[in-house]
Amino acid sequence: MDAGAPRRQAGRSSGGGVLTWLGGLVSLSLLFGMAGWGYQIVMRDVSGVPVIRAPEGPMRISPADPGGRRADFLGLAVNAVAAEGTVARPADRLVLAPPPITLAAEDLPGAQLRRVIALRERARDMPESSTMFALPPGKGVESAEVASPVEPFDGSADRGLPPARGEEMQVETSAPGSADEAGDGQAGPGEARVAALVSADGEARSQFEGADPGEVAATGRGLRRSLRPLPRPEPELAADALAEAIARQLAGVDDIEVPLADLAPGTALVQLGAFASAETARQEWRALAARFADFFAVKRRVVQEAESGGKRFWRLRAEGFEDLSDARRFCAVLVAQGANCIPVVLR
Protein backbone atom coordinates (compact mmCIF):
# COMPACT_ATOMS: atom_id res chain seq x y z
CA MET A 1 0.00 0.00 0.00
CA ASP A 2 1.04 3.55 -0.54
CA ALA A 3 1.92 5.46 2.63
CA GLY A 4 0.28 8.70 1.36
CA ALA A 5 -3.20 7.21 1.11
CA PRO A 6 -4.19 7.63 4.81
CA ARG A 7 -2.99 11.20 4.73
CA ARG A 8 -5.16 12.02 1.71
CA GLN A 9 -8.17 10.32 3.39
CA ALA A 10 -7.69 12.43 6.52
CA GLY A 11 -7.63 15.57 4.39
CA ARG A 12 -10.86 14.59 2.72
CA SER A 13 -12.55 13.89 6.05
CA SER A 14 -11.54 17.29 7.42
CA GLY A 15 -12.91 19.04 4.31
CA GLY A 16 -16.20 17.18 4.58
CA GLY A 17 -16.56 18.24 8.21
CA VAL A 18 -16.27 21.91 7.29
CA LEU A 19 -19.00 21.53 4.69
CA THR A 20 -21.18 19.76 7.20
CA TRP A 21 -20.78 22.55 9.71
CA LEU A 22 -21.54 25.17 7.09
CA GLY A 23 -24.69 23.33 6.01
CA GLY A 24 -25.82 23.09 9.60
CA LEU A 25 -25.32 26.82 10.15
CA VAL A 26 -27.29 27.63 7.00
CA SER A 27 -30.09 25.33 8.10
CA LEU A 28 -30.21 26.89 11.55
CA SER A 29 -30.25 30.40 10.09
CA LEU A 30 -33.12 29.45 7.78
CA LEU A 31 -34.96 27.89 10.68
CA PHE A 32 -34.58 30.95 12.89
CA GLY A 33 -35.43 33.25 9.99
CA MET A 34 -38.64 31.36 9.23
CA ALA A 35 -39.54 31.44 12.91
CA GLY A 36 -39.00 35.20 13.13
CA TRP A 37 -40.95 35.84 9.93
CA GLY A 38 -43.86 33.76 11.15
CA TYR A 39 -43.86 35.57 14.49
CA GLN A 40 -44.01 38.93 12.73
CA ILE A 41 -46.92 37.80 10.57
CA VAL A 42 -48.83 36.55 13.58
CA MET A 43 -48.25 39.75 15.52
CA ARG A 44 -49.27 41.90 12.55
CA ASP A 45 -52.54 40.03 12.13
CA VAL A 46 -53.25 40.30 15.83
CA SER A 47 -52.53 44.03 16.07
CA GLY A 48 -54.66 44.90 13.01
CA VAL A 49 -54.03 46.72 9.75
CA PRO A 50 -50.96 48.93 9.96
CA VAL A 51 -51.63 52.69 9.89
CA ILE A 52 -50.07 54.52 6.99
CA ARG A 53 -49.36 58.17 7.52
CA ALA A 54 -51.13 60.36 4.99
CA PRO A 55 -48.95 62.55 2.81
CA GLU A 56 -48.99 66.26 3.46
CA GLY A 57 -50.90 68.56 1.13
CA PRO A 58 -53.92 67.95 -1.10
CA MET A 59 -54.13 64.91 -3.33
CA ARG A 60 -54.91 66.99 -6.44
CA ILE A 61 -54.47 70.66 -7.16
CA SER A 62 -56.52 72.34 -9.87
CA PRO A 63 -54.52 74.71 -12.05
CA ALA A 64 -55.08 78.42 -11.68
CA ASP A 65 -55.68 78.77 -15.42
CA PRO A 66 -56.95 75.51 -16.89
CA GLY A 67 -57.13 77.01 -20.36
CA GLY A 68 -59.56 75.94 -23.04
CA ARG A 69 -62.91 77.51 -23.84
CA ARG A 70 -64.85 78.93 -20.93
CA ALA A 71 -68.46 77.85 -20.58
CA ASP A 72 -71.25 80.38 -20.81
CA PHE A 73 -73.07 81.79 -17.77
CA LEU A 74 -70.21 81.25 -15.31
CA GLY A 75 -70.30 83.13 -12.04
CA LEU A 76 -74.07 83.58 -11.90
CA ALA A 77 -75.77 83.56 -8.51
CA VAL A 78 -78.22 80.89 -9.64
CA ASN A 79 -75.37 78.43 -10.18
CA ALA A 80 -74.58 78.45 -6.46
CA VAL A 81 -77.87 76.68 -5.73
CA ALA A 82 -76.84 73.61 -7.72
CA ALA A 83 -73.18 73.74 -6.68
CA GLU A 84 -73.46 74.48 -2.96
CA GLY A 85 -77.10 73.72 -2.20
CA THR A 86 -77.79 77.19 -0.80
CA VAL A 87 -78.40 80.63 -2.21
CA ALA A 88 -75.27 82.69 -2.74
CA ARG A 89 -74.66 85.88 -0.80
CA PRO A 90 -75.59 89.20 -2.40
CA ALA A 91 -73.01 90.30 -4.91
CA ASP A 92 -70.67 93.15 -4.09
CA ARG A 93 -70.96 94.55 -7.60
CA LEU A 94 -73.95 94.53 -9.94
CA VAL A 95 -73.41 94.61 -13.68
CA LEU A 96 -76.09 94.98 -16.30
CA ALA A 97 -76.55 92.13 -18.71
CA PRO A 98 -74.97 92.63 -22.12
CA PRO A 99 -77.29 93.68 -24.94
CA PRO A 100 -78.71 90.89 -27.07
CA ILE A 101 -76.76 89.83 -30.11
CA THR A 102 -78.41 91.21 -33.22
CA LEU A 103 -77.70 91.02 -36.90
CA ALA A 104 -75.61 93.63 -38.60
CA ALA A 105 -77.32 95.99 -41.02
CA GLU A 106 -76.03 94.09 -44.05
CA ASP A 107 -77.32 90.78 -42.63
CA LEU A 108 -80.92 91.92 -42.12
CA PRO A 109 -83.75 90.72 -44.40
CA GLY A 110 -84.52 92.83 -47.41
CA ALA A 111 -87.57 94.59 -45.96
CA GLN A 112 -85.87 95.52 -42.70
CA LEU A 113 -82.68 96.54 -44.49
CA ARG A 114 -84.58 99.00 -46.69
CA ARG A 115 -86.23 100.46 -43.58
CA VAL A 116 -82.86 100.95 -41.86
CA ILE A 117 -81.38 102.60 -44.96
CA ALA A 118 -84.38 104.93 -45.23
CA LEU A 119 -84.06 105.98 -41.58
CA ARG A 120 -80.36 106.69 -42.01
CA GLU A 121 -80.97 108.79 -45.13
CA ARG A 122 -83.73 110.71 -43.36
CA ALA A 123 -81.40 111.44 -40.45
CA ARG A 124 -78.75 112.77 -42.83
CA ASP A 125 -81.27 114.97 -44.65
CA MET A 126 -82.45 116.72 -41.43
CA PRO A 127 -79.50 118.87 -40.29
CA GLU A 128 -81.76 121.61 -38.90
CA SER A 129 -83.73 119.36 -36.56
CA SER A 130 -81.24 119.98 -33.75
CA THR A 131 -82.09 123.71 -33.74
CA MET A 132 -85.86 123.48 -34.05
CA PHE A 133 -86.35 124.02 -30.29
CA ALA A 134 -83.69 126.73 -29.91
CA LEU A 135 -85.31 129.66 -31.66
CA PRO A 136 -84.47 133.19 -30.51
CA PRO A 137 -87.38 135.13 -29.02
CA GLY A 138 -89.30 137.42 -31.32
CA LYS A 139 -89.29 135.28 -34.49
CA GLY A 140 -93.02 134.60 -34.54
CA VAL A 141 -93.07 132.04 -31.70
CA GLU A 142 -93.11 132.85 -28.01
CA SER A 143 -90.24 131.33 -26.05
CA ALA A 144 -92.57 130.25 -23.24
CA GLU A 145 -94.59 128.17 -25.68
CA VAL A 146 -91.53 126.63 -27.32
CA ALA A 147 -90.17 125.55 -23.92
CA SER A 148 -92.93 122.94 -23.57
CA PRO A 149 -93.93 121.75 -27.06
CA VAL A 150 -96.80 119.28 -27.27
CA GLU A 151 -97.02 116.96 -30.23
CA PRO A 152 -100.67 116.56 -31.32
CA PHE A 153 -102.16 113.08 -31.50
CA ASP A 154 -102.76 111.98 -35.05
CA GLY A 155 -105.63 109.50 -35.20
CA SER A 156 -106.73 110.23 -38.76
CA ALA A 157 -105.86 106.72 -39.89
CA ASP A 158 -108.39 105.22 -37.45
CA ARG A 159 -111.25 107.74 -37.39
CA GLY A 160 -111.20 109.02 -40.95
CA LEU A 161 -110.32 112.57 -39.81
CA PRO A 162 -108.06 114.91 -41.77
CA PRO A 163 -104.37 114.69 -40.96
CA ALA A 164 -102.82 116.58 -38.06
CA ARG A 165 -102.43 120.25 -38.67
CA GLY A 166 -98.71 120.19 -37.93
CA GLU A 167 -98.09 117.83 -40.88
CA GLU A 168 -99.54 119.42 -44.03
CA MET A 169 -101.01 122.77 -42.95
CA GLN A 170 -98.90 125.89 -43.25
CA VAL A 171 -99.55 128.28 -40.36
CA GLU A 172 -98.57 131.91 -40.42
CA THR A 173 -97.07 132.90 -37.09
CA SER A 174 -96.46 136.57 -37.67
CA ALA A 175 -97.91 139.58 -39.39
CA PRO A 176 -97.26 140.14 -43.11
CA GLY A 177 -94.56 142.67 -42.35
CA SER A 178 -92.82 140.75 -39.61
CA ALA A 179 -90.76 138.73 -42.08
CA ASP A 180 -88.82 141.81 -43.11
CA GLU A 181 -88.33 142.82 -39.48
CA ALA A 182 -87.02 139.39 -38.49
CA GLY A 183 -83.95 139.61 -40.66
CA ASP A 184 -83.60 137.48 -43.79
CA GLY A 185 -87.38 137.18 -44.22
CA GLN A 186 -87.44 133.36 -44.56
CA ALA A 187 -88.20 130.81 -41.83
CA GLY A 188 -86.48 127.42 -41.90
CA PRO A 189 -88.33 124.11 -41.95
CA GLY A 190 -87.64 123.59 -38.24
CA GLU A 191 -89.19 126.95 -37.33
CA ALA A 192 -92.29 126.29 -39.44
CA ARG A 193 -92.83 122.89 -37.81
CA VAL A 194 -92.51 124.33 -34.29
CA ALA A 195 -94.95 127.08 -35.16
CA ALA A 196 -97.43 124.55 -36.52
CA LEU A 197 -97.16 122.39 -33.42
CA VAL A 198 -97.67 125.30 -31.04
CA SER A 199 -100.59 126.66 -33.06
CA ALA A 200 -102.34 123.28 -33.16
CA ASP A 201 -101.79 122.81 -29.43
CA GLY A 202 -103.18 126.23 -28.60
CA GLU A 203 -106.25 125.66 -30.75
CA ALA A 204 -106.93 122.28 -29.09
CA ARG A 205 -106.58 123.79 -25.63
CA SER A 206 -108.94 126.65 -26.42
CA GLN A 207 -111.50 124.25 -27.90
CA PHE A 208 -111.69 121.92 -24.86
CA GLU A 209 -110.95 124.46 -22.12
CA GLY A 210 -113.65 124.36 -19.44
CA ALA A 211 -115.48 121.43 -21.08
CA ASP A 212 -116.79 118.40 -19.23
CA PRO A 213 -114.53 115.33 -19.52
CA GLY A 214 -117.53 113.22 -20.46
CA GLU A 215 -118.41 115.54 -23.34
CA VAL A 216 -114.81 115.54 -24.54
CA ALA A 217 -114.77 111.73 -24.54
CA ALA A 218 -118.05 111.66 -26.47
CA THR A 219 -116.59 113.76 -29.30
CA GLY A 220 -114.13 110.95 -30.14
CA ARG A 221 -111.14 113.28 -30.22
CA GLY A 222 -108.10 113.34 -28.00
CA LEU A 223 -106.47 110.31 -26.45
CA ARG A 224 -107.92 106.98 -27.53
CA ARG A 225 -106.06 104.98 -24.87
CA SER A 226 -105.83 105.77 -21.21
CA LEU A 227 -102.36 106.26 -19.82
CA ARG A 228 -103.47 104.43 -16.69
CA PRO A 229 -103.85 100.63 -17.13
CA LEU A 230 -107.35 99.23 -17.00
CA PRO A 231 -108.35 97.57 -13.71
CA ARG A 232 -108.25 93.82 -13.60
CA PRO A 233 -111.54 91.91 -13.31
CA GLU A 234 -112.74 91.17 -9.83
CA PRO A 235 -112.16 87.64 -8.48
CA GLU A 236 -115.91 87.11 -8.22
CA LEU A 237 -116.39 87.91 -11.90
CA ALA A 238 -113.56 85.55 -12.85
CA ALA A 239 -115.07 82.79 -10.72
CA ASP A 240 -118.50 83.32 -12.28
CA ALA A 241 -117.01 83.18 -15.77
CA LEU A 242 -115.19 79.95 -14.91
CA ALA A 243 -118.35 78.39 -13.49
CA GLU A 244 -120.30 79.40 -16.58
CA ALA A 245 -117.66 77.87 -18.86
CA ILE A 246 -117.74 74.62 -16.89
CA ALA A 247 -121.53 74.55 -17.04
CA ARG A 248 -121.45 75.04 -20.82
CA GLN A 249 -118.93 72.22 -21.14
CA LEU A 250 -120.97 69.91 -18.93
CA ALA A 251 -124.12 70.67 -20.88
CA GLY A 252 -122.56 69.27 -24.05
CA VAL A 253 -121.75 65.86 -22.52
CA ASP A 254 -124.02 62.99 -23.52
CA ASP A 255 -126.12 62.05 -20.51
CA ILE A 256 -127.22 58.47 -21.26
CA GLU A 257 -128.22 56.24 -18.37
CA VAL A 258 -128.86 52.52 -18.70
CA PRO A 259 -131.21 50.75 -16.25
CA LEU A 260 -129.56 47.98 -14.32
CA ALA A 261 -132.27 45.52 -15.37
CA ASP A 262 -131.27 45.86 -19.04
CA LEU A 263 -127.75 44.53 -18.40
CA ALA A 264 -127.04 40.81 -18.58
CA PRO A 265 -125.10 39.04 -15.83
CA GLY A 266 -121.39 38.88 -16.59
CA THR A 267 -121.27 42.35 -18.18
CA ALA A 268 -117.97 44.12 -17.61
CA LEU A 269 -118.40 47.39 -15.71
CA VAL A 270 -116.26 49.89 -13.84
CA GLN A 271 -117.32 51.38 -10.53
CA LEU A 272 -116.55 55.07 -10.14
CA GLY A 273 -117.71 55.51 -6.56
CA ALA A 274 -120.58 55.23 -4.08
CA PHE A 275 -122.72 58.24 -3.17
CA ALA A 276 -125.48 59.17 -0.75
CA SER A 277 -128.00 60.01 -3.48
CA ALA A 278 -128.60 59.23 -7.12
CA GLU A 279 -128.41 62.90 -8.10
CA THR A 280 -124.97 63.22 -6.51
CA ALA A 281 -123.82 60.19 -8.50
CA ARG A 282 -125.11 61.76 -11.72
CA GLN A 283 -123.30 65.02 -10.98
CA GLU A 284 -120.07 63.08 -10.41
CA TRP A 285 -120.59 61.35 -13.76
CA ARG A 286 -120.94 64.70 -15.53
CA ALA A 287 -117.76 65.98 -13.89
CA LEU A 288 -115.78 62.87 -14.88
CA ALA A 289 -117.22 62.93 -18.40
CA ALA A 290 -116.09 66.53 -18.81
CA ARG A 291 -112.65 65.75 -17.40
CA PHE A 292 -112.11 62.58 -19.48
CA ALA A 293 -114.24 63.45 -22.49
CA ASP A 294 -112.28 61.24 -24.89
CA PHE A 295 -112.73 58.13 -22.72
CA PHE A 296 -116.38 58.68 -21.71
CA ALA A 297 -117.57 59.41 -25.26
CA VAL A 298 -118.93 55.87 -25.88
CA LYS A 299 -119.64 54.91 -22.25
CA ARG A 300 -123.07 54.81 -20.63
CA ARG A 301 -123.96 55.57 -17.03
CA VAL A 302 -125.31 52.98 -14.62
CA VAL A 303 -126.67 54.05 -11.21
CA GLN A 304 -127.28 51.06 -8.94
CA GLU A 305 -129.08 51.33 -5.62
CA ALA A 306 -127.62 49.19 -2.83
CA GLU A 307 -127.88 48.76 0.94
CA SER A 308 -125.23 47.82 3.48
CA GLY A 309 -125.44 47.93 7.27
CA GLY A 310 -128.89 49.46 7.17
CA LYS A 311 -127.70 52.39 5.03
CA ARG A 312 -128.76 52.98 1.44
CA PHE A 313 -126.32 54.28 -1.14
CA TRP A 314 -126.02 54.47 -4.90
CA ARG A 315 -123.15 53.03 -6.90
CA LEU A 316 -121.96 54.91 -9.96
CA ARG A 317 -120.80 52.59 -12.71
CA ALA A 318 -119.94 52.83 -16.40
CA GLU A 319 -120.93 50.37 -19.13
CA GLY A 320 -119.64 49.87 -22.64
CA PHE A 321 -116.59 47.59 -22.37
CA GLU A 322 -115.83 44.54 -24.48
CA ASP A 323 -114.49 42.45 -21.60
CA LEU A 324 -112.91 42.74 -18.17
CA SER A 325 -109.47 43.48 -19.68
CA ASP A 326 -110.90 46.49 -21.50
CA ALA A 327 -112.40 47.71 -18.22
CA ARG A 328 -109.05 47.31 -16.48
CA ARG A 329 -107.29 49.39 -19.13
CA PHE A 330 -109.95 52.07 -18.73
CA CYS A 331 -109.43 52.14 -14.96
CA ALA A 332 -105.67 52.33 -15.38
CA VAL A 333 -106.06 55.60 -17.27
CA LEU A 334 -108.39 57.11 -14.66
CA VAL A 335 -106.32 55.98 -11.68
CA ALA A 336 -103.20 57.48 -13.27
CA GLN A 337 -105.01 60.84 -13.28
CA GLY A 338 -106.12 60.56 -9.64
CA ALA A 339 -109.71 59.34 -10.16
CA ASN A 340 -111.37 56.36 -8.45
CA CYS A 341 -112.07 53.37 -10.69
CA ILE A 342 -112.53 49.64 -9.97
CA PRO A 343 -113.27 47.03 -12.69
CA VAL A 344 -116.18 44.74 -11.74
CA VAL A 345 -118.39 42.09 -13.31
CA LEU A 346 -122.16 42.30 -12.96
CA ARG A 347 -123.63 39.36 -11.06
UniProtKB/TrEMBL annotation:
InterPro entries: SPOR-like_dom, SPOR-like_sf. This is Sporulation related domain-containing protein. GO terms for molecular function: peptidoglycan binding. Keywords: Membrane, Transmembrane, Transmembrane helix. The chain crosses the membrane at residues 18-39. Residues 126-232 are annotated as: Disordered. Residues 262-347 form the SPOR domain. The keyword Transmembrane applies. Pfam families: SPOR. It comes from Meinhardsimonia xiamenensis.
